[in-house]
Design a protein that fits this description.
This protein has 4 helices and no strands. The chain is mainly alpha-helical. The longest helix is centred in the middle third of the chain and has 31 residues.
């Protein structure tokens, strides 16, 4: 069987990544909520005409929250697959993973406040 080219492998990889992104958006309520918030914040960015730097920070914050939430979901799914019963060690792992999402979400919220509070003053 011939080895696939670098380009073919990259295209296939992008396809898998897009499939994963759409699976997250279609099946995970936390990502759906965060996607809704991201849309609202994007509309707010256009409405308030935020600066290029503010756009960069906002998009970075949105990407971090949604990316870490995706990793959290993957960790939870792996844990549930490995140990479907309640297990304190698995619970510890899942709590740490959720805590990472909380940290990024708090920082993203602070970034949003820094950007938007002055717009209301």
């Amino acid at each position: 069987m011939p080895k696939e080219s670098f380009i073919t492998n990259r295209i296939r990889g992008v396809g898998y990544a897009l499939k994963g992104m759409f699976l997250l958006l279609r099946t995970e309520s936390s990502i759906q909520i965060q996607f809704g918030i991201a849309l609202v914040m994007t509309v707010a960015g256009f409405y308030f005409e935020i600066s290029k730097t503010e756009w960069i920070l906002q998009l970075f914050a949105i990407g971090m929250v949604m990316g870490i939430e995706g990793l959290n979901t993957a960790i939870e799914k792996v844990c549930d697959y490995i140990q479907p019963d309640i297990d304190p060690k698995i619970g510890f792992i899942k709590d740490i993973s959720a805590g990472a999402v909380m940290i990024v979400s708090i920082i993203a919220s602070i970034i949003g406040l820094i950007i938007y509070i002055p717009k209301f003053m």
